[in-house]
Amino acid sequence: MNRREGEGCPRRNADAVQDRDASADPSSPVIAAFKVFQQELDTKHDKYERLVKISRDVTIESKRTIFLLHRVTSVPNAEDILNEADVKLDAVRQKIGQIAEELRGEDIFQFHRAFTAGIQEYVEAVSFLHYIRHRNLISLEEINASLVFMRTEKGSAEALQPGGQVLTFQVTPSDYLLGVADLTGELMRMCISSVGNGDIDTPFQLSQFLRQIHDGFSYIGNTGPYEVSKKLHTLRQSLGKVEDACYALRVRGSEIPKHMLADVFSSRTTLLDPEEGVV
Amino acid sequence: MNRREGEGCPRRNADAVQDRDASADPSSPVIAAFKVFQQELDTKHDKYERLVKISRDVTIESKRTIFLLHRVTSVPNAEDILNEADVKLDAVRQKIGQIAEELRGEDIFQFHRAFTAGIQEYVEAVSFLHYIRHRNLISLEEINASLVFMRTEKVEPKVTPSDYLLGVADLTGELMRMCISSVGNGDIDTPFQLSQFLRQIHDGFSYIGNTGPYEVSKKLHTLRQSLGKVEDACYALRVRGSEIPKHMLADVFSSRTTLLDPEEGVV
C-alpha cells in the first residue's frame, strides 16, 4: 500500500486498493493512520468552534460597551459611565484571556479568522474609551500591554509560583488597523450627538482628529489588508459628515440660536443608526 | 412629554425635549421606561445568542453523524456504525432539548432563524439513518415523536414543516454520495433503488414548486443535479456494465464524478 502519510491521495489509488481488498481491513496501518488524522482534525475544528463562540461573546460585550460610551454626551456625570465601561472591558479582557488560553502552543494564524471580528470590536471599544478620556488615539503597544494575563499551572494554588505562566495576547497590526477604522464611525456618531446636545467644541476637535486618521489610512492606501479599502471609503463619508457639522456650526451657527441648532442637524443626518436613539 | 411607550420616536421630538432639559434626568419615567426596554432587548438578544450557539453544536454533531453514516458502504459490519450513529443522534437530541428549554414560553418564530440550520442538519442526519435501516423516508410525525423530552413538564419541540422539507432536500445530496460510493464498492443494486427513491422525492418537490419557502427553489436545482448524477451511475451500470468487469467499474466512475467532496475520501 503506497498510502502511509498524507490525506490528499488520488481517488484512483483508493479504488485500486479497494478492489484488491473486498472490504477495508480496520486494523491496517492505513486505517489507523486515518484515525489519527480524524482525531487531529476533530480537535482542530472543535478548537476553532470554541474560539468562534468566545469571539462572539467578545463582540457582543464590546458593542454593548460602545453603546454605553455613547451616552457620555448626554449625562452630566460622565465618570460613572466611564467606570462602568471599565468594568465591562475588564470582563471582555477575561474572555480574551480565554482565547489566549485556547491558543497556547498553537499557530495563531490558523485560527485567526475565528476571533478577528471580536478583537476588532474590542480594539474599537477600548480606543473609544481612551479617546473620551484622553482625546488621543491609543497605541497598539498600550492595547497589548493591557492584555497580559497571569495563568497558573493546574493544581497549583498560588499565582506567584515560579511555574506560573504569563500569557499575553498580541493584537495583530491588521486587527488594530481595522478596529481603528471602525472607531472613526463611532466618533462620527459621537460628534453628531454632541452637537445635538449643544456642545460646539467637540466637532472641531473630532474633525482634526479624524482628518489625521484619514491621512494615515491614505498613506497605507492599498498595501494593507483588503478590508482597509472598504473602511477607507466609509471613513471618508464619516469625515464628510463631521466636516459638514463643523461647517454648519461655524458658518450657519452665528445666525441660529443654540436651541435650534439641533433641528438643523436632525434634517441633515438622516443616515444615523437607531442605536443612538437614547440621546 | 409625549413619549410614554414605544421606542421608535421621531428624532425631532427627542431634540425638542433635549433642548428643554439641558441634561437627561435619570429618574424621569421616560428613562425608566427605556431601561425596561433595554433589559427586555438584552434578554432577547442573549437568548438568541445562546440559541445560535446550541444550534451550531447541533449542526456540527449532525454533520459528524452523517460522515459516520457514509462509512456503512465500505465496512462489513454496518450494525456497529448504525449503533454509534444512534448514540450520536441521542446526544444531538439532548441539545435540541436544551433548545426547547430556552424556547419555553417564547414565540418560537422570533428565534426561528437562530436554530433553523441546526434543525435542518438534524433532520438530514436522522432521515439518512432511517433510510439506511428501512429504505424509506422518515415522516415528520416520527421525527417529532422522537423529540419529546421529559423535563419538569413535558416539552415538545416541533420541527416545522419547512425545516423538514429543507432537511429532506439536503438528504438527497447525501443519498447521491452514498450511491456513488456504493458503486465504487461494487454494489450494483443500491443505485437503482436510490434512483427510484430520489425520483419520487424530486416529484414531490416539483409539486411544491415555488409555493414553499424560498430556499426550496435553490435546493430543487441541486436535487435535479443529484438525480442526474445518480441516473448517470445507473446508466453506466446497466448499459456499460455488461461490457466492463466489476473491478474496473470503479475507475469508470472516478473519471465521471469529479465534483464530489473530499469528505468521502475514506472509502
Automatic annotation (TrEMBL), chain B:
It is found in: Cytoplasm, Perinuclear region; Golgi apparatus; Nucleus. It comes from the Eukaryota. The keyword Oxidoreductase does not apply. Mg(2+) binds at residues 124, 174. The keyword RNA-binding does not apply. One of its GO terms (cellular component) is nucleus. Residues 1-26 are annotated as: Disordered. PANTHER family: TRANSLIN AND TRANSLIN ASSOCIATED PROTEIN X. Ring-shaped heterooctamer of six TSN and two TSNAX subunits. Interacts with GOLGA3, TSNAXIP1, SUN1 and AKAP9. Interacts with the homodimeric form of C1D following gamma-radiation. Interacts with TSN and C1D in a mutually exclusive manner. Belongs to the translin family. Acts in combination with TSN as an endonuclease involved in the activation of the RNA-induced silencing complex (RISC). Possible role in spermatogenesis. This is Translin-associated protein X. It comes from Etheostoma spectabile (orangethroat darter).
